[in-house]
Design goal:
The chain is α+β, with helices and mostly antiparallel strands. Helices cover 21% and strands 14% of the residues. Strands 3, 5, 9, 14, 16, 17, 19 and 20 form an eight-stranded mixed beta sheet that branches. Strands 2-4-18-15 form a four-stranded antiparallel beta sheet, with helices on one face. Strands 10-11-12-13 form a four-stranded parallel beta sheet. Strand 23 and strand 24 form a beta hairpin.
Length: 905
């Protein structure tokens, strides 16, 4: 008799997956998941079935002594009289309305056999034992509730379907097992225990013989259609073909936002603002532990929206903003009004709050306010409130931009100081140990009033230091001087650095070329700040509402691991231009600097995320300073910044059917108005692990995993980080496989749900991305740190494009179009898989990862296409520029294999 952990599948290809967790005090019955609640239990079948709270789910008939207990036959056994292998039990049969219906309804045509009568169980009930499955027809399909869908699978087109093969021989017959004494029966003094009411052991309840039930029916074709899967290679001794790359799922459409979440709760905010890793919240800590993937959310509070989706602005005036007295939740579409409209119940903490007279409105027959359609806060998931004076520590400050520019000889030679505009006064502070500001009140000017002065300065900047031979950089003292100027107003500090800080406070040393450190336990120290000066300065900047963006241009080591700390804790960003040349990369710099100065920015911001009862956010990941356990300080945050966080359950078992989330961002707009942007969303609570997988969001999962991986590189080796990611995917897919294990052959195949079909590909691309791949010789340390800092801030859509870039062929388009519009190209030309088979030597391709463009020119490119690009094959193609306003790296031969195989699945 099998022993071990009850309810877990046996380590055998014939053992089925463990059934979903169920309470031992409730009789077993199929569970139908609904959007509004975790489950709906169908009524029990007709017949006299006697159950007790502590008895197994199987019916007890009579009290006479039963025959000796025999364990049920293993899955896959066939009786001699049974013409076909058994199909799944009724609990696995999808409803008739589901498009994935493959199984026929079991027909119980066997002659009636009286059940085995058994005495009541002795001792305490087995709490871990799953209840047996009673007789029941097909699951009840509620109107409007989608039925469970089987896992989506892929098979290479050249593979012979398993259904067309001869069924495998049945080496066993489903008859009474041989009377072989168990191990315990051979021990001296062993006494045969009384038989139990229900079966125990490692077998799943679907494959155990139950009283009043016949073996499940169905054909092998049913099983094949329902469990087709991705073949990972040829299995020894089998007829399966090897892996067909064309059958692999690839995200050629880019990021696809989940629709089921918004359709289930139409009052939720747009997914571009808030995305959960799974839209089904587990109802218990034990269920959450079996999820294995990160349980959390990705928030982009200022995501760009179209004109039709603009966030409405609400001004309550003298009435004040309506909030819950206890949890401080803002009024939202999910609050309910009672007592004729005089009170409203908070959807997060369930507290009844009084409605002020200025906000009162009557309720209709359904209990809904009659003015709900006219109030955006009651019918929109996203809204902005105009904040009154009690939400201000000081009057709103005007937007301030302060430029800190490196003027060393390396900066001059690289062309970083070049300007296209048409001699302001210069003051030099020579004491780098005791920095002071000579004119603290006159260093800041109003742009509209002093625009000609600013343009004159930019024009004279290249010539002011044209003859300099200074190779040192006093970055630390200059940083302190900038802080002295800005701390009264706050704002954004833009740093343009081209060399390693070498003079004064904050000077750094060359440490990136130490090859001996790589592969050891000290490897991670190269990716963290060496001098605590920068972390302390970042804390001071955040305290005085100053955000920092770093623009790095050097072709030598500048220790971006230390300089990037300034952006990490102030909500900023790092821009990296390796080996900067103004003639090649000036367009890229112009574009990114222009967007940095013109995009929507929130100043002096703080953000907090509230959750319903029983759940909370435990960790936060991104560029910010955490002031308290759940308050994120963001001196300057824009629409291109996203933040990830992990969710945990405070209670062992959640009793609510829905969990609510609310994101609140208090900030100062560029117009000088203090506002509060609020995003509200709801998610159902489920008790089924399979439903969590079906409602998973690959984009949110990859965003959380990427941030966890980048943070892990700061304390571990790169090999350990890659192993950490792969283990997460293996555990998750193994758990899902256990849910859908069947009795036919599955060797060398991977089962996964439709929602996660791209997850292995994205994780593989993440492991081979710039921050995580290889070792010392693969990526420069500065580039690794810079790209890692960028990944910590990217929204979901931008991150997925970076991991799996766009590859399009444009040579045919160039011959037909007179001008090259990149947006039209992406819309009219399909994306290609990132494999070497997609590259034709006669073609011209554009590779776009969101951070750069790469032009790939085939060695056999037709002359007419080359003439349209003004390409002269006698010249060095690496110096050729096209009319695109982007940085284009050109190559005459095939791109380096590592570049494209870097993203190949």
């Amino acid at each position: 008799m099998a022993t071990g952990n009850p309810g877990r599948p046996a380590a055998s290809p014939f053992a089925a997956a463990s059934p979903p967790a169920a309470s031992p005090f409730v009789a077993s019955a199929p569970v139908v998941t609904t959007p509004d609640g975790p489950s709906v239990r169908p009524p029990p079948v007709s017949g006299s079935t006697i159950t007790t709270p502590f008895s197994s789910a199987g019916p007890m008939v009579g009290t006479s002594a039963p025959p000796p207990f025999r364990p049920g036959p293993p899955a896959g056994f066939v009786r001699p009289s049974t013409p076909a292998p058994p199909g799944p039990p009724p609990s696995q049969v999808p409803p008739a309305s589901n498009q994935f219906q493959h199984f026929s309804t079991p027909q119980f045509s066997m002659p009636h056999q009286p059940p085995l009568s058994r005495p009541p169980p002795v001792g305490f009930p087995n709490m871990a034992q799953p209840p047996a499955q009673p007789i029941m027809g097909p699951p009840i399909q509620l109107p409007g509730v989608p039925g469970p869908s089987p896992p989506v699978t892929f098979r290479p087109p050249t593979q012979t379907p398993l259904a067309q093969m001869a069924p495998p021989p049945q080496p066993y017959a489903q008859g009474p097992p041989a009377q072989t004494p168990s191990y315990h029966a051979l021990q001296p003094g062993y006494v045969q225990p009384p038989p139990h009411q229900g079966m125990t052991g490692m077998h799943a309840r679907e494959h155990m013989q139950q009283p009043f039930s016949a073996p499940p029916t169905g054909s092998m074709q049913d099983l094949v259609e329902d469990f087709n899967s991705l073949s990972l290679g040829a299995v020894p001794g089998s007829m399966d073909n090897a892996l067909d790359p064309k059958a692999l799922p690839r995200p050629l459409e880019g990021d696809v936002e989940p629709k089921a979440f918004s359709e289930m709760y139409p009052l939720n905010c747009n997914p571009k603002y808030l995305r959960l890793t799974t839209s089904a919240i587990p109802n218990s800590q034990s269920l959450a532990s079996r999820w294995h993937l990160p349980l959390g959310a990705v928030v982009c509070p200022l995501a760009e929206a179209s004109k039709e989706e603009e966030v409405p602005i609400v001004n309550f005036g003298s009435a004040g903003i309506i909030r819950c007295r206890r949890c401080r939740t803002y009024v939202n579409p999910y609050v309910t009004f009672t007592d004729g409209g005089r009170k409203w119940r908070c959807n997060l903490c369930a507290l009844l709050n009084e409605v002020s007279g200025d906000y009162f409105a009557q309720l209709d027959a359904t209990g809904r306010r009659i003015d709900a359609d006219q109030r955006p806060e009651l019918n929109k998931g996203s809204v902005e409130f105009v904040a009154p004076t009690e939400y201000m520590v000081r009057p709103p400050m005007p937007p301030l931009y302060f430029f800190l520019i490196d003027v060393s000889v390396s900066a001059v030679r690289s062309g970083m100081l070049e300007s296209t505009l048409t001699q302001p006064q210069m003051m030099v502070v020579s004491d780098v140990d005791d920095v002071f500001v000579p004119l603290p009140d006159d260093l800041l000017v109003n742009l509209s009033e002093s625009r000609h002065v600013v343009e004159s300065f930019l024009d004279s900047l290249p010539t002011m230091f044209h003859d300099t031979m200074n190779v040192e950089s006093a970055f630390g003292p200059a940083l302190k001087a900038a802080f002295m100027v800005m701390r009264q107003l706050g704002g954004k500090l833009l740093i343009f650095q081209n060399s390693l800080p070498s003079i004064g406070v904050g000077r750094l040393r060359l440490r990136g070329d130490d090859v001996r450190v790589y592969g050891t336990d000290k490897e991670h120290s190269l990716r963290v700040a060496e001098d605590p000066f920068y972390k302390q300065m970042a804390a001071d900047f955040s305290k005085y509402q100053i955000g920092v963006n770093v623009y790095a241009f050097s072709d030598k080591y500048t220790d971006l691991a230390s300089l990037g700390t300034l952006s990490k804790y102030t909500g900023g960003q790092v821009y990296f231009y390796p080996s900067f040349k103004s003639g090649v990369q000036q367009d890229k710099l112009r574009h990114e600097l222009g967007r940095d100065l013109t995009r929507e920015t929130a100043w002096e911001a703080v953000m907090r995320i509230r959750c319903g009862k029983g759940v909370r956010f435990s960790t936060y990941h991104g560029n910010f300073m955490l002031r308290s356990t759940d308050l994120l300080a963001l001196p300057a945050v824009d629409c291109d910044k996203a933040f990830a966080m992990q969710l945990c359950l405070d209670e062992t078992l959640l009793t609510s059917q829905t969990v609510y989330f609310q994101v609140a961002l208090l900030y100062t707009a560029s117009c000088g108005e203090r506002r509060i942007r609020v995003h509200t969303a709801a998610a159902p609570v489920v008790s089924d692990l399979g439903e969590m997988y079906r409602q998973a969001d690959t984009g949110a999962l990859v965003s959380v995993l990427s941030r966890l991986a980048i943070e892990k590189t700061l304390s571990s080796k790169l090999d350990d980080t890659r192993t950490y990611l792969l283990k997460i995917i293996v555990k998750a897919l193994k758990e899902y496989r256990n849910l859908h294990a069947v009795q036919h052959r599955l060797a060398g195949r991977m089962i996964y749900p439709e929602s996660l079909k791209y997850l292995p590909l994205y994780v593989l691309a993440l492991c081979k991305s710039t921050p995580l791949r290889g070792g010392f010789a693969d990526v420069q340390l500065d580039e690794r740190c810079a790209v890692g800092s960028i990944l910590m801030t990217l929204p979901v859509k931008s991150l997925l494009k970076f991991l799996y870039p766009s590859l399009i062929r444009v040579d045919e388009f160039l011959l037909k179009a007179s001008s090259l519009d990149l947006q039209d190209v992406e819309k009219s030309i399909p994306r290609l898989p990132l494999t070497s088979q997609s590259l034709d030597p006669r073609g011209l391709y554009i590779f776009d990862d969101g951070l750069r463009f790469v032009i790939w020119i085939g060695s056999m490119l037709p002359p007419e296409v080359a003439r349209s690009l003004n390409v002269d094959y006698s010249s060095d193609l690496s110096q050729v520029l096209t009319s695109m306003n982007s940085c284009l790296l050109l190559s005459k031969k095939y791109a380096h294999p590592l570049f494209f195989s870097h993203y190949a699945y």
